[in-house]
Amino acid sequence: MDFAARAAELREQIEHANYRYYVLDSPEISDSEYDALFHELKAIESEYPQLITSDSPTQRVGALPVSGFTPHRHAIPMLSLDNAFGEDELRSFDERVRKVLEREEPVEYYCELKFDGASMSLTYEDGMLVTGATRGDGTTGEDVTSNARTVRGIPLRLRHPLRGRIEVRGEVVMLKSTFEKLNEARAARGEQVFANPRNAAAGGLRQLDSRLTAQRKLNFFAYGVGQVELTDIDGFPGNESELERPTAEQSETTDAVRRRGLVRRLAPTQGEILLRLKDLGFATHTHTRVVQGAEGLIEFVKDAQGLRDELPFGIDGVVLKVNALDQQEQLGFTARGPRWAVAYKYPAEQAFTRLLRIFTQVGRTGTINPVADLEPVVVGGVTVSRATLHNYDEVRRKDVREGDVVIIQRAGDVIPEVVGPVLDKREGELPLPVEPTECPSCGTPVSRKEGEVALRCPNRKCPAQISMKIQHFVGRKMMDIEGLGEKIVDRFLELGFLTDVASIFRLHDHRAELVKLERMGEQSIGNLLRNIEESKTRPLPRFLFALGIPDVGERGAVDLGRELRTLEAIRHADYDTLLAVPGVGPRTAGEIQQWFEDDENRRVLDEMLALGVAPVEAERPASDLFAGKTFVFTGKLEKFSREEAEAVVQKMGGKAAGSVSKNTSYLVAGPGAGSKLAKAEQLKVEVLDEDGFLALLPPGTL
């Protein structure tokens, strides 16, 4: 065998696989096939060390520790961006741009995500990576080349040869899934957890032992170029006939002008620069958009914020740039940064505060969960004073104690949680939290089911459980009974007007007593009783969701209602019938069957039906147009709402799901589609825009 040729072939195959995986997010081979190629190359290089090249994929694993980092002065400073925090500031930015450009018509902007990571500069000479440096103070960073080489998303050799020097700039990030696994492992070893993925990524780049950097499994996304000193650009991908050649006069201009000229010949706009970088082998996220004027900027800012939780990595805002490079040149720079770009910052989703006490809360199924009482702190634009600690195993694993300064995290509408303590700020020996032995509401000894971590109160008459069940039952997505908030429910329980979920429908018997209560009155009680009466005929899926059957969420309730049609059919269905419902697995089927066989649940259900509760059966599909088809909707839908689209799919005999899988038939993607679109492309799921979806429907359906 010609081992030199085979090693070269393996390097090419592995780098192509890396490009498909990290850049295109569309792998062509399995992980096991990739590992086989890698191990074969490693074996050849081990046997024949003279065949090892500096750009070999095997050289990403890290080198021996270094004593320190060498300062690296950036040829072109990595300047900061001005920040914007509201719509008025975006309009002011657009107004300043148009004033300098002397334009009345809207300016075209290129909108990108602002990755929450660590900025990095990568320098390539004749297509080979020679330097990786941190941003530092913008003028001088640190040479972390050995660490940069371990980041899989950073090509060691450009996919197309470029003679000369080019500097690529981007952000090193840690994916959310990687961050969670890293923190779990650190906590298990008794080490301090990281506050956020940004800290973990930045710390990974500054490890003196690059083998530790490799363990962080970092990613890199390119967002632009810095220094460009290419002798020619024949090797750059694209339509070469469209690339303007430098004139003799241009070749004699200053370095700065020469750089701008070269960049403009590489690509005339910011958007095309990113396309060229992708061709060279760099990952650039797809959630970008070209917009017109201030209103376009505002719309993108809102759309991107709505997708923040779906993204596989953290962002702390968006970056908005004038798209045309000749206009960027005309706008120029201030001492701090470019006049042609601005960063719009979102409210922070993490914050530090003090944990005042840990108390227990009883859920509707009897689970007893620890909750953190906090010094109020603003997280994600919302003031948070309480956060979940999940269970007492988690409390011990994270080593959270009363009096600690803790990291609080809140993403979107998710309940705030305690990430972990800041051990450096722990004052003295704080006492360990004590796991309760009795229910804090009724005093019943707690128990734990085999295989579960949660403590439970086994008392079905526990006031706290009943309160939580009623609050869930009357919720907006369930029975939607306005006027029965948490305080009212607890008050009615204390006075004996409520005893279980069925007693809601007996409240009209107590009307004379209720209107005499302080801060109630005839009008408020009248409205409440009217809302209760109207709720009796809610759609069957909402009623099923309201019952609080374990493992049956909003979408699962829809599936049950669509397939089995009536409440009677569902409550008397056997295990095999339930298992045949799409989306119902073995565990869920067992939970449903067990719930309807429980004597107390049957008593409450029968009592509600006797009191006039009559859930409306799901309509039969109007057609079988979408029979056997599953749709997922994502992004900002402009021509119809997601709820309207899902209802039409179900009306046509199809299924609307919340996540993309191999069973998804179509993904309907509006502007701002994020991780669901990426997964659909990876699984080769057919992607439709809104017009494509409408084309599948009979005229006038939506």
Number of strands: 21
Distance between the termini: 64 Å
Percent range for helical residues? 25-40%
Give the rounded overall mean pLDDT: 84
Tally of separate helices:
26
Q: What is the assigned CATH homologous superfamily of the largest domain?
A: DNA ligase/mRNA capping enzyme
State the CATH architecture of the largest domain.
2-Layer Sandwich
Radius of gyration: 30 Å
Domain module count: 6
Shape label: globular
Could you explain how this protein is built, in words?
The chain is built from 26 helices and 21 strands. It is of the alpha+beta class and 702 residues long. The chain folds into six domains: 3-61, Helix Hairpins (Orthogonal Bundle), CATH 1.10.287; 91-345, DNA ligase/mRNA capping enzyme (D-amino Acid Aminotransferase, Chain A, domain 1), CATH 3.30.470; 350-426, OB fold (Dihydrolipoamide Acetyltransferase, E2P) (Beta Barrel); 463-535, Orthogonal Bundle (DNA polymerase, domain 1), CATH 1.10.150; 540-610, 5' to 3' exonuclease, C-terminal subdomain (DNA polymerase, domain 1, Orthogonal Bundle); 630-696, Rossmann fold. The strands form five sheets. Strands 12, 13, 14, 15, 16 and 17 form a six-stranded antiparallel beta sheet that branches. A hairpin with a 2-residue loop joins strand 13 (367-379) and strand 14 (382-388). The longest helix has 21 residues, at 3-23.
